[in-house]
Write a structure and sequence with these properties.
This protein has 2 helices and 8 strands. The chain has about 130 residues and is of the alpha+beta class. Strand 1 (about 5) and strand 2 (about 15-20) form a beta hairpin. Helix 1 (about 20-35) runs parallel beside helix 2. The radius of gyration is 14 Å and the shape is globular.
Length: about 130
């Protein structure tokens, strides 16, 4: 199973993340975010604990990815490994591993609700996410 795939979008970037369960889906969505920026090459040297909440599963995914982008911007870090320890319909707690940001050639400004979809198929969980660049 692929972790994610980039999908065509007319104005912004979009990707579809996959997971055998919701934890893996949320981890792979985070992985896709930094993979699209080309930020996975750094050697992980730091760890952060993250806790986010949302009113539903979709809001939780947007808040999770948005928190990672906020930390990237304010702490000048990128993340390569994601371990979700707790995940409910409205809360997520995770440990992320990353490094100081290297110069990026691509930069994601925000995660959007446009075309956002989380669904379970017969084989796996999938999330479609559009990001603003």
């Amino acid at each position: 199973m692929n972790r994610y795939e980039e999908i065509d979008h007319t104005a912004d970037w979009a990707f579809r993340a996959y997971g055998n369960d919701l934890k893996e889906l949320f981890e792979n969505a985070a992985y896709a975010l930094f993979a699209l920026e080309g930020a996975l090459d750094a050697q992980s040297t730091l760890t952060r604990e993250i806790h986010v909440a949302g009113i539903d599963r979709e809001a939780l995914l947007v808040n999770w990815l948005s928190e990672l982008l906020f930390l990237q911007e304010t702490k000048r870090e990128t993340y390569q490994k994601f371990e979700i320890e707790k995940l409910s319909e409205t809360e997520l707690s995770a440990t992320v591993h990353g490094a100081q940001t290297q110069p990026l050639t691509k930069f994601i400004k925000a995660v959007t609700y446009h075309d956002l979809r989380i669904e379970q198929t017969e084989k796996e969980w999938q999330a479609t996410v559009v990001v603003d660049v």
